[in-house]
Structures are given as structure tokens and as C-alpha cells.
Design goal:
Length: 198
């Protein structure tokens, strides 16, 4: 079964002073959709790839598997990023309880998340980690470098330049502050509930 690119209606209603329609249309409808399409293409090619020639130095099968994780994680991270936009930026409910337990305060979480977002090449991801049942922020330079097994992404901050350059130029910090103010923490609580975290 092939993946389908989602539309994310909430991204069509965002304040254009924060993220312009042009920027979001390119990001969602071209870049993200490209990861979905490339994942489907790779999975089709894997069906017939010659496994007898698999090698770490180079093989068609090996390269397909490497690009598969890059593209699948690109889909997952973008779907999270788009799904948690369009709120008022104020944590509430279960996620606020977890933030206060694991970071001490919402301000401490924000400071850490934005610092990680400034330090990374691609993503800063607030996750719920099943290993210790706590929230953590992980730096993910590329979609498939830095991800931690056993974690649920709750807030994926896209810090690749494509996410902000049209609207903010090289001013990543202003972009991050603007995105923080429109995070939808109700959507984050829905993610926690979906995964049975009470």
C-alpha cells in the first residue's frame, strides 16, 4: 500500500505574518509530498532489488535502504511538524504536567527546545521516551541521524532553511520564537492520548 501525502487543513489557516502561504505551500505540497512519493518509489524498487549483491561499500539494495530511512523519517517528522501548528503556544493538560515534571517549567522547556533548534542542522524534537517514561529533546541533524528508538515525537521543530528562509532569511531565532507562539498543545495532548500516555 502506498503512502498518501496529507493535506493538513490547519496549515492553510495559519497567520501569514508567521509563515507565509507561499512558504507553507512549498514546504507542505512539494517538499513533504516529495518525501511521501520518494518513499513509495523506494519501496517499489526494493521489491526487485538484488539482495545477493548487498554490500556496505555500495549496492543498489544498500542505497535504497539508506534512502528509505531518510525519506520515511522525513514523512514522520514533517507530519508531526504540520500537525502541531495552529495553536496559541500555551502548553496545557497532560503535556504541561509532563513538562513541569521533566523540565521544571514551561520556560525551561522553551529555552532548551529553542537552544536545541539553534544548534541543529535539521530538527529539534521534543519526544516522550518509553525507556525512562520522560520527555526529552533530541537533536536530529538529518532525518535518519540522531533519531532515538522507542520515542514518540511530540513537537518536531523543522530548522532546515527551507522551513523559514522565504519569510525570515537567515534569522532562524525569530522564526523559532514565532513558531513557538503557534504550537498547538491540544494536538500534542492528542498524540499522548493516542499512545496511551495518561
Amino acid at each position: 500500500m502506498s503512502l498518501q501525502a496529507k493535506q493538513f487543513e490547519n496549515t492553510k489557516k495559519l497567520d501569514e505574518k508567521v509563515i507565509s502561504k507561499k512558504s507553507m505551500d512549498i514546504h507542505r505540497d512539494k517538499l513533504y509530498a516529495g518525501y511521501v512519493n520518494k518513499t513509495n518509489e523506494i519501496r517499489d524498487k526494493l521489491k526487485t532489488a538484488d539482495r545477493s549483491k548487498a554490500a556496505a561499500t555500495y549496492s543498489e539494495y544498500g542505497e535504497l535502504k539508506r534512502r528509505e530511512t531518510f525519506n520515511v523519517n522525513g514523512v514522520i517528522l514533517h507530519e508531526n511538524y504540520f500537525s502541531v501548528l495552529g495553536g496559541d503556544g500555551k502548553p496545557k493538560g497532560k503535556v504541561k504536567e509532563l513538562i513541569e515534571r521533566d523540565f521544571g517549567s514551561v520556560d525551561a522547556l522553551k529555552e532548551d527546545l529553542l537552544a536545541c533548534s539553534m544548534a541543529g542542522l535539521g530538527w529539534a524534537v521534543l519526544c516522550y521516551d518509553y525507556l525512562d517514561q520522560k520527555l526529552h529533546i533530541y537533536l536530529v541533524d538529518f532525518h535518519h541521524h540522531g533519531a532515538v528508538w522507542g520515542c514518540i515525537p511530540l513537537v518536531a521543530m523543522d530548522v532546515f532553511e527551507h522551513a523559514y528562509f522565504i519569510d525570515y532569511g537567515s534569522d532562524r531565532k525569530t522564526y523559532l520564537e514565532a513558531v513557538w507562539k503557534m504550537l498547538n498543545w491540544d494536538a500534542v495532548n492528542d498524540i499522548l492520548k493516542k499512545h496511551g500516555i495518561k
